Amino acid sequence: MLKVLRMEETTEDPGPNTDQARHEALITAVADNRDKSAFESLFVRFGPRIKGMMLGSGAGEDLAEDLMQEVMLTVWRKAALYAPERGSVSTWIFTIARNARIDRLRRQPVQPFVDVETVSIASDAPSAESEMIAGQHGEIVRAALQKLPQEQRDVIDLAFNQFMPQSEIAKKLNLPIGTVKSRTRLAYKKLKENLEDLR
Amino acid sequence: MSIHHHLDAASLMRYAAGDLDPAFAVVVASHIAMCDECRQAVRLAEAVGGACLSDMPEAALSDGSFTRLSRMIDAAPDTATKRRPVEATPANDPDGDVPLPLSSLIGGSLDDVPWRLVVPGVYRHKIELADTSSSLFMLKIGSGRKMPEHGHGGTEMTLILRGSYSDSMGRFGPGDVADLDEHVEHQPVVDSDDPCICLVATEEPTRFKGIVSRLMQPLVGI
């Protein structure tokens, strides 16, 4: 039931020329047909970027390469779990990279994250909510990010591009931790407003 | 479920970036499993990560990187994950009040929690987590009971699972989360007929004010 509704929705989703539409078609080919060449296209697009993130967050060359391979292997195995109404392909791959990093570098359990993703699949009704989420694809969020004031952008870049803990961001920018928190909150609020304006 | 108290945006962003300590990640994940609004909000936060990944400069991969991965895929049996719907609470949870991320830790029923009495009317169950400097525990507090007034040594997050309490910030019922910064002082009073059961993550041992509370603290251990 859910699957049928989803397919109907995605056909009228963003134009076929967007990154998201291309990536989504590739993921679907991997999920439905175990299509190796579609998977290679995803690998070429995301592999070097995932590795870049891992290097930026302090992993050495070998570990970064290894984590990247692990993330892409998960993409191959779990392609069927990608749900477009929950966000773009790059967002989904980001969460896999985040979880791999928590698991390997921080040696912390990722089960809570995995559980939430499982829950979300079950309770997502195709609704106003899912339409809004579908609207958050790549370009829109990127455009909104670029409109953030620099001081908020810096905090976001460190937190997401480099997976830097809040306490280290405070040290690096020489700010009290409360200021880092309030900039994060402001950035989130701005982003949400910008997305509503762009829609 | 009507939820009135939600997660702080800074907590959502830290969750999305993978920066929350495990104890807090469990509370956030449990709330998100119960709250459509915060689930949607965390997706926006994760979309920030997706945009950052898209804009990331490309790092050079090692030689033959894809070939190696491709061989790994061919060598192993194809363990493709199939999509299957899962309920927000586990099937063995008769009351539907244990969110999935918590059920991974305590099982499916709040009635089977191995409570330990700490002071009359207050029960506690500590959830052991590896690699955390914070603590995660559940509390069951009898109707009409007050939690001792306390300020926080660090941040504290409380998710209500059953019953309700009130304090200066309002009334907190099932699904509500109190996502509190340090320096906040509050004195929750349980105002439901049945005991209030909640899941709590604290950054540091909570310091109770007042001599009686101080004497009590080693007993309560929170």
Automatic annotation (TrEMBL), chain A:
Plastid among keywords: no
Domain of life, per lineage: Bacteria
Keywords: DNA-binding, Sigma factor, Transcription, Transcription regulation
Gene3D superfamilies: 1.10.1740.10, Winged helix-like DNA-binding domain superfamily/Winged helix DNA-binding domain
InterPro entries: RNA_pol_sigma-70-like, RNA_pol_sigma-70_dom, RNA_pol_sigma70_r2, RNA_pol_sigma70_r4, RNA_pol_sigma_r2, RNA_pol_sigma_r3/r4-like, WH-like_DNA-bd_sf
Location of region: Disordered: 1-21
Domain spans labelled RNA polymerase sigma-70 region: 42-108, 144-193
Homology family: Belongs to the sigma-70 factor family. ECF subfamily.
PANTHER family according to UniProt: RNA POLYMERASE ECF-TYPE SIGMA FACTO, RNA POLYMERASE SIGMA FACTOR SIGZ
Name of the protein in question: Sigma-70 family RNA polymerase sigma factor
Automatic annotation (TrEMBL), chain B:
Location of the region described as Disordered in the Swiss-Prot/TrEMBL record: 77-98
Chain coiled-coil ranges: none
InterPro entries referenced in this protein's UniProt entry, alphabetically: Anti-sigma_ChrR (IPR012807), Anti_sigma_zinc_sf (IPR041916), ChrR-like_cupin_dom (IPR025979), RmlC-like_jellyroll (IPR014710), RmlC_Cupin_sf (IPR011051)
ChrR-like cupin domain ranges (all copies): 110-202
Transmembrane feature ranges: none
Pfam families listed in its UniProt record: Cupin_7
Domain of life of the source: Bacteria
Protein name, UniProt field: ChrR family anti-sigma-E factor
Species in which this protein is naturally found: Hoeflea poritis
